[in-house]
From TrEMBL:
InterPro entries: ACX-like_C, ATPase_NBD, Hydant_A_N, Hydantoinase_A, Oxoprolinase-like. The lineage of its organism: Bacteria, Bacillati, Actinomycetota, Actinomycetes, Propionibacteriales. This is Hydantoinase/oxoprolinase family protein. Residues 4-184 form the Hydantoinase/oxoprolinase N-terminal domain. Residues 205-491 form the Hydantoinase A/oxoprolinase domain. Residues 509-673 form the Acetophenone carboxylase-like C-terminal domain.
Length: 691
């Protein structure tokens, strides 16, 4: 048998999914994350999954990992101290930034401006200048370079970033600075903007390069440590890391370009959701990933996640390709509180995290959380994560009672219901950001809900959005790990042009696209992927001439087959996207800014699950009946063991469906149908229960 292993490290739990490629059978493990050394939790989870499968570690093949190491380094301000080398006259590029202040009028008064990742005292200028067309205006002064690098040597910097003006057009000066740095600052990791982001715009290119340098030492150490521990423990396969855009790269490539890993964790969930939704026949859907700390949402159209050109983590926004995921501070561990000034109930963004966790975990937490509210309402079983976390209902009631006292509500259940209603509205707002705000009607999409807490709130979110069916995947609590294990290797090549369409020809553009495709393929063929198995897609960042921003548009390579019309088709595609986003188009010449080619290896051939047919009656899976709070009052609800449900079973609400890694709540006047692939499809009872 051949096994693939998916690993997803979150803020609260580490999820492991072991997949038998021949049968599609899965074996899961969910263990507490170990922030001090994530590899500890990873190896512990691997042991649990192997024990469940009855195999030794040596039977595990390749390991596919979604990691938050880079994300946490940025969020917690624990990145390396970075030195920055820039062109003479551009020393304050990070301080000037984009002069953007979040918030309303006079927001700058209360907004604490974040410190740049490379301090001004750690930034040096070197003499030499490249023009925007790549020509050399002023030769690089190598003596000056050595002088400036020696000035950095005594400052205690741990990584070096090099970002010279217009280096996207000609990297020669940056490459020479790197060679000199290897002599003057030996052993230091170096990030060059011409490698990290060979694109227009000095600030975006510089901040992205500095961010790459800031997390590179930590990511390198983590990857090397995990690879070594896997090898020493008997795992013989290779380690691959998930990028923010949902593709995989080898561990070594990931360590060299960690800025592409900032949304590694959430991307795995979107990839896994696409895998699951395809099996149920739904190609357009919203994803809703609710964990212990936060909730991530995204929109997928025709099984293709929307890809953005910016990645935002905390206050940091970098120019890196990523799945268009929006995050809100709403998770199972989000803390409910009543500010004294407003006396209005709030939920999050503060979280109880993994330690001490919600009060119900009986691990020292006392503040009321979303998990505690669900315990009070009877929505959760007596233990989570396959028994690893026992729940204390009395501790949960005591915590939530503080909210009832502060708000004057007449019962602890009413306070808990208020917490759930508010957190649901917070997550509904996030779903609107990726749908309504982007010109999509959520009623035209299904809703795929996962994460440890997602299925508890999914039915309510379906009711708020009108997105049906609500799809609860098998093993929803470890779906991110499933996505890690069922995606493919990916790499991309980029070139900035800045040319009006009148300055371009179809043949010339096709030649550039072919060069980019060859570059993107090269990384994957070096990993042993046969070139004939690779699929290449193309995109262009376009704008109207005179605009200050671009919109990414897919490029139909077949339109550039020599018969003409390629640029015309590209322009029409841009107009259509511009109209969808802004409701108008301009009679202005189009301008191409950046071209991109992305190469993908084939997705793994993992067998899908096919459940035994069991008719509509789910009674054989019913394990108990208890009272829960639903729609304003206590009602009797059946509790089902999901592992006993069969294809075709229809579970009427109110009901609770339990499994090792998650719990699903079916509301009154709704029903969950078990799809042959194992997913639950929740719809209002007045809608068809088919497929």
């Amino acid at each position: 048998m051949t096994y693939r292993l998916g690993v997803d490290v979150g803020g609260t739990f580490t999820d492991i999914l072991l997949i038998d490629e021949d049968s599609g059978a899965t074996f899961r493990a969910k263990t507490s994350s170990t922030p001090e050394d994530q590899s500890v939790g990873v190896l512990r989870g691997i042991d649990q999954a192997c024990a469940a499968a009855g195999i030794e570690r040596s039977a595990v093949g390749d390991v596919f990992h979604g990691t938050t190491v880079a994300t946490n380094a940025i969020l917690e301000g624990k990145g390396a101290r970075v030195g920055l080398v820039t062109t003479h006259g551009f020393r304050q590029v990070l301080q000037i930034a984009r002069s953007f202040v979040p918030g309303g009028l006079a927001g700058w008064i209360i907004w604490p401006k974040p410190e740049p990742l490379a301090a001004l005292e750690d930034t040096v200028e070197v003499r030499g200048r490249i023009a925007s067309d790549g020509s050399v205006v002023t030769e690089l002064d190598e003596d000056d370079v050595r002088t400036q690098l020696r000035a950095l040597a005594g400052r205690g910097i741990e990584a070096l970033s090099i970002s010279l003006i217009n280096s996207y057009a000609n990297p020669a000066h940056e490459q020479r600075v790197r060679e000199i740095a290897a002599e003057e600052l030996p052993g230091l990791t170096v990030s060059m903007s011409s490698s990290v982001l060979p694109e227009l715009r000095e600030y975006e290119r510089t901040i992205t390069t500095v961010a790459n340098a800031a997390v590179q030492p930590q990511v390198k150490r983590y990857v090397a440590n995990l690879e070594g521990q896997l090898r020493d423990s008997g795992v013989s396969g290779s380690l691959s890391i998930l990028r923010s855009d949902g593709g995989l790269v080898s561990a070594s490539v990931a360590a060299d370009n960690p800025v592409n890993l900032l949304l590694s964790g959430p991307a795995g969930g979107v990839t896994g959701a696409a895998w699951v939704a395809a099996q149920t026949g739904h190609r357009n859907f919203l994803t809703f990933d609710m964990g212990g700390t936060s909730t991530d949402v995204a929109l997928v159209e025709d099984l293709t996640p929307r890809i953005g050109r910016e990645t935002t983590v905390g206050d940091l926004k970098v120019r890196a390709t990523s799945v268009d995921v929006r995050t809100v501070g709403a998770g199972g561990g989000s803390i409910a509180h009543v500010p004294p000034l407003t006396q209005a109930l709030r939920v999050g963004p503060q979280s109880a995290g993994a330690a001490p966790g919600p009060a119900a975990y009986a691990a020292g937490g006392t503040e009321p959380t979303v998990t505690d509210a669900n315990v009070v309402l009877g929505h959760l079983p007596s233990a989570l994560a396959g028994g690893e976390v026992a729940l204390d209902p009395e501790a949960a009631r005591t915590a939530v009672q503080t909210i009832a006292d502060a708000t004057g509500l007449d019962s602890v259940e009413a306070a808990a219901a208020g917490i759930i209603d508010i957190v649901n509205e917070n997550m509904f707002g996030a779903l609107r950001l990726v749908s309504v705000q982007q010109g999509f009607d959520p009623r035209d999409f299904a809703l795929v809900a996962f994460g440890g807490a997602g299925p508890l709130h999914a039915n309510a979110l379906g009711r708020l959005t009108g997105s049906w069916p609500v799809i609860i995947p098998p093993s929803p609590g470890v779906l991110c790990a499933y996505g890690d294990a069922t995606t493919s290797l990916r790499d991309e090549a980029v070139r900035t042009l800045v040319r009006r369409f009148s300055e371009l020809t179809d043949d010339g553009l096709r030649a550039i696209l072919d060069d980019l495709a060859a570059s993107a393929r090269g990384t994957l063929t070096a990993e042993g992927v046969p070139e004939d198995d690779l699929r290449v897609t193309y995109a262009a960042d376009l704008r109207y001439h005179g605009q200050g921003f671009e919109i990414p548009v897919p490029v139909d390579i077949d339109a550039f087959d020599g018969s003409g019309g390629g640029l015309e088709a590209l322009g029409k595609a841009f107009d259509t996207e511009h109209d969808r986003l802004f409701s108008f188009v301009l009679d202005t010449e189009h301008e191409l800014v950046t071209l991109r080619a992305t190469a993908d290896a084939p997705r793994p051939d993992v067998a899908s699950v096919d459940l035994e047919d069991g008719g509509t009656d789910p009674s054989s899976a019913r394990v108990e009946r208890h009272r829960i709070w639903s729609d304003g009052g206590l009602v009797d609800a059946d509790v089902y063991d999901r592992s006993l449900l069969k294809a075709g079973n229809v579970v009427p609400g109110p009901a609770v469906i339990t499994e090792m890694d998650s719990t699903t709540l079916v509301l009154r006047d709704h029903a969950a149908t078990v799809h042959p692939s194992g997913s639950l499809l929740i719809r209002p009872v007045d809608q068809s229960q088919e497929g």
